[in-house]
Amino acid sequence: MHAVTETDIKAYPLRSRGKVRDIYDLSPDSLLLVTTDRISAYDVIMPDPIPLKGVILNQITLFWMDMFKDMVPNHLIASDVADFPAPLAPHAADLAGRSVVAKKAKPLPIECIVRGFITGSGLKDYQATGSVCGHALPAGLVESQILPVPIFTPSTKADLGAHDENITLDTAKEMLGSALFAKVEATSLAMYAKARDYARERGIIIADTKFEFGLIDGELILIDEVLTPDSSRFWPAEGYAAGKSQPSYDKQYLRDWLVSIGFNKQPPAPNLPQDVIAKTQEKYLAAYELLTGKKLA
């Protein structure tokens, strides 16, 4: 399967091109979401793709959406290119496995992050204030330590190339309203708990993850990607020990390589050596295979 870095579908207007996804307007009520093989680090898009990455992300999302379908509705209309609108048929080779037709929803203005372990920006906030997004945490927590209970820690949604910022629960409640906030928080925590337990049985620790929701006629809908290596931290359970950073099934390998060469975290990004591309792909494939129990066809 060839790498897909960018799509060019003239039959429909391009709505947006993000760090990973190309989104097209299909109708007043539907979108085409294409998950490409682009990869970013430190909010900078790399010049070289990771072959199959988009397929892996899309298939993992479909896997989790199916698992959660009785907990929250999702935006899916079709995931098989054979069921896509006829004008997309000439693009079937580029779209197969990596795209979905989805309902248009009004996205909520926050990222819905759940943390089960203290790491990343949560660790930085904790070290500075003893709390994360308004959650007061016990003293003495160390990097990668499991939290007493998972916590809901919302953030802003930043524009392309900018960084999301953690916000307090009160701020998120003001943005959404109390009733919708309560539903989003409860749904996010319930999905995380179910996924955490499932993944743990398969040798993966889900340290944290980010969900996105939208509204359709006032109904809460799960949208975008779900529990992928791009939206989550997946750690191998074997060898886990608190007090240090953990190896992971995601693009941390790429980030570490960029740091090792002195990348200043600003565009333009350097070209990626073949061994870095191969090792990064290997991490994504391992996550897919462990979680789904399948080999990528």
What are the main properties of this structure?
seven-stranded antiparallel beta sheet; Phosphorylase Kinase, domain 1; five-stranded antiparallel beta sheet; alpha+beta; D-amino Acid Aminotransferase, Chain A, domain 1; 297 residues; 2 domains
Describe the overall structure.
30% of the residues lie in helices and 25% in strands. It is globular. The protein is an alpha+beta fold. It has two domains: 14-104, Phosphorylase Kinase, domain 1; 107-250, ATP-grasp fold, B domain (D-amino Acid Aminotransferase, Chain A, domain 1, 2-Layer Sandwich).
Summarize the structure.
With 297 residues, the protein is of the alpha+beta class.
Number of domains: 2
The end-to-end distance, rounded to whole angstroms, is: 10 Å
CATH architecture name of the largest domain? 2-Layer Sandwich
List SSEs in N-to-C order.
EEEEEHEHEEEHEEEEHHEEEHH
Q: What's the Cα radius of gyration?
A: 19 Å
- CATH fold group of the largest domain: D-amino Acid Aminotransferase, Chain A, domain 1
Give unreliable regions as ranges.
none
Top-tier CATH class of the largest domain: Alpha Beta
Share of β-strand residues:
25-35%
State the helicity in percent bands.
25-40%
How many individual helices? 7
User: Oligomer, anyone?
Assistant: single chain
Task: Provide the structure class.
Answer: alpha+beta
| CATH homologous superfamily heading of the largest domain | ATP-grasp fold, B domain
Overall morphology: globular
Largest β-sheet summary = 7 strands, antiparallel
